[in-house]
Write a structure and sequence with these properties.
302 residues; two-stranded antiparallel ribbon; 9 strands; 17% strand; globular
């Protein structure tokens, strides 16, 4: 995997590449007897929607996340870099990520899985659809076998690892029957030191239901994935563009950014939309840029 760091040039209003690091995740925890299952490893790096590159992280841009205030006088907080968000998860232990379709929830969980694994944590990732009709006792073994090759009692070894070194990523928790969510989180809390879940909508329970369980969702720091604003749109456009065209110029990137800016009131500026628009523009309309924005509709509907 290639990890590339960029730094914002305020004067030129562009991102400049700072350094590149290459590492492999597949055998990151092999010395502990845990090796990623091949299909899961491929999925971790794949883009399920776009075919820009073999690895989504060749062009991934870390999103901005806004804390959802639990009270009216709570402090506003926006986190826009991976290091700060990882530190917050380690500190808060339980984090919820709220985002609409295409906002990048799954990609963010993939990125966090890789980051925590590379730093010596032992992660499990699960999409809520995998849990359908499974009892609590069968959940962990099923998820473990989906993520890792289970040989020579490796699952038993995993369960015995220190709780504070294990983290569970649960994607699309809103797809789980609401009556089962609290008991599932309570079960996971007893095994994992950190839990991060994503959801399309805020999950609320009445006070009676909360009192029946030992889990209070207010224990979770909740963050909402924000739309991509100008700086990060430019970075994403540049990174996607470089994957598609090595000769991509700064002017072409600026042209795409201008088109998107003109239409931001009418379209959701999420990563999926920006990637698809950049892809279509470069493949079909690169030399037909129009500053009045009239090209936008034919590009998007091509």
């Amino acid at each position: 995997m290639n990890s590339i760091q960029y730094k914002w040039d305020e004067k030129r209003q562009v991102y400049n590449k700072q350094k590149e690091q290459v590492y492999s995740l597949k055998n990151m925890n092999s010395k502990f007897g845990f090796e990623l299952e091949e299909e899961f490893n491929k999925w971790l790096y794949s883009d399920q929607v776009n075919t820009i590159s073999d690895s989504i992280f060749d062009y991934y841009v870390f999103p901005d996340l806004e804390r959802i205030k639990e009270t009216s006088n709570a402090e506003n907080k926006v986190i826009g870099d991976e290091e700060s968000f990882v530190d917050l998860i380690i500190d808060k232990k339980r984090v919820a990520i709220v985002g609409t379709e295409g906002s990048g929830k799954t990609s963010l969980l993939k990125k966090l899985f890789i980051e925590f694994t590379s730093n010596g944590y032992f992660c499990l990732y699960c999409n809520a659809s995998l849990l359908e009709k499974l009892s609590l006792k069968k959940i962990l073994l099923t998820v473990f076998r989906n993520n890792y090759i289970d040989l020579n009692g490796s699952f038993d070894e995993y369960i015995q690892l220190p709780k504070e070194k294990k983290i569970f990523f649960l994607d699309d928790i809103n797809d789980i029957d609401k009556s089962q969510i609290l008991s599932l989180l309570d079960y996971l809390k007893g095994i994992f030191g950190m839990i991060v879940y994503s959801t399309k909508e805020l999950i609320e329970f009445d006070i009676t239901e909360r009192m029946k369980q030992s889990v209070d969702l207010e224990d979770y720091s909740r963050f909402r994935l924000m739309p991509m604003y100008l700086k990060k749109r430019k970075l994403l456009i540049t990174k996607v563009g470089k994957q598609l065209d090595d000769s991509l110029t700064e002017e072409t990137s600026e042209n795409i950014a201008k088109l998107l800016k003109q239409q931001r009131k009418f379209y959701s500026m999420n990563p999926s939309f920006v990637i698809q628009f950049t892809d279509l523009y470069l493949k079909n309309f690169k030399d037909a840029f129009a500053t009045d924005g009239n090209i936008f509709t034919p590009v998007y509907n091509f």
